[in-house]
Amino acid sequence: MRLTRLKELSEALDADALIVTSAMNVFYYTKLPRPYGSVILYRRGGDVALYVPGLDYWRVKDSVSDAEVVPYSKYPLEAVEEEAPRVVRSLSEELVKQVEGLRLIGIDSVTPLANQVIKKVEGRVGYVDASKAIMEQRKIKTPDEVATMEEALKITEESLKQAIDQLRPGMREYELAAILEEGMRARGADWYAFETIVAAGPNGAYPHAVPTAREIVNGEPVIVDMGAVYGGYCADMTRTIYLGKLPKDMREALEAVANAAEEAEDVASPGVTAEEVDKAAREYLRKAGLGKYFIHSTGHGVGVEVHEPPRIAPGVKEELRPGMVFTIEPGVYLHGRFGIRIEDMVLITSSGARVLNRLPKIIE
Predict the structure, then answer these.
(1) CA 275, 277, 281, 286 torsion-angle sign
(2) Domain with 78 in it
(3) How many structural domains does the chain have?
(4) What CATH number did the domain enclosing 197 receive?
(5) pLDDT tens digits, 220-277
């Protein structure tokens, strides 16, 4: 458990206790797989209780050693109650009881449970929304977090390479998606960071396309957007692949998008704002005559969730800092014709940016 991070958070908020209710935030501090329904109560000074659904008690108890694991259930669970020192019937009432008399608590007020607790303590216990402060911690990745994401990305890239070897004319979009997802699971992925996108020909003009029964044919671009989850951390990568030879205008668009991504990656460095990175990609595509077809932001943070701050977009003046990991994914979308998108994951270092991807932007 990342007790140091919880200690730092409580000190930053000047809070006597912290209640963490969001599943992704709970995972961030505990590294507990599938933490849904689990809640952290941290008391300034180091005492930690991890409240978990009764059916998860043994799984959590066997894997967490630096917190009191407390099961909760609205109905009796005889086998669990024979082993657990105590079982909680109402989680919200238990949390209120534990913080009664405290001066100030921090809570990530993004769940119904958090709002229940806030309503019950209001007027008796001071509280502060910890959501933003937690996300500030999550933005800056440690070397271990980066290494885990690199493994997730390696799984993703190797699965794409295998799928390209199997790609044949007549294969349907959903068949390629299935090969990609099977490849990620076979290589050790926990799951997929999002629903895999395979969009061929005109379907590629939909940035959030869903794989269909459309057959992949020679001479058209195929957008593949995919990402493995490994060790609880996400990868997110897009490549535009093709069979045969692309027509001249499509090939030029592919090269322009690849160059736009490189321009943005060259600009990314500590102290540069998110909007400056976005502008670099956008300006390149504008000069290439494709600017009006770039219809989304340039990127987003990646971590325990596939979409996290910082957002790399127009108007975002947040300065980049070492340890931030985000995507750079320019694209162009010509309705009724085709789409092109290329997406890398980038780590901000003390001196610049390091692209985490190993696959080239254009796969020949």
Answers:
(1) positive
(2) 3-138
(3) 2
(4) 3.90.230.10
(5) 999 999 999 999 999 999 999 999 999 999 999 999 999 999 999 999 999 999 999 9
Residues 87/49, Cβ–Cβ less than 8 Å:
no
Residues 152 and 113 in one domain: no
Q: List Cβ neighbours of 22 (8 Å cut-off, separation of 6 or more).
A: 108, 110, 111, 131
Do 133 and 109 meet the contact criterion of CB atoms below 8 Å apart?
no
Strand 48-53 and strand 68-72: the pairing is parallel
| 362 in any annotated domain | no
Residue 67 and residue 209 share a domain: no
Token pair 């229940």 is found at 116
The encoded tokens of residue 13 equal 């908020």
Angle at 105 (CA atoms; ends 100, 109), nearest 5 degrees: 115
Between CA 105 and CA 16, with CA 142 as vertex, the angle to 5 degrees is: 10
Q: At what angle do helices 112-121 and 91-99 cross, to 10 degrees?
A: 40
pLDDT value of residue 230: 98
- The β-bridge relationship of strands 197-200 and 104-107 is unpaired
Instruction: Tell which of 103, 138, 173 closes a domain.
Output: 138
The CA distance from 254 to 248, in Å, is: 10
Q: Is residue 156 domain-shared with residue 290, that is, in the same domain? A: yes
> For position 11, which CATH number holds?
3.40.350.10
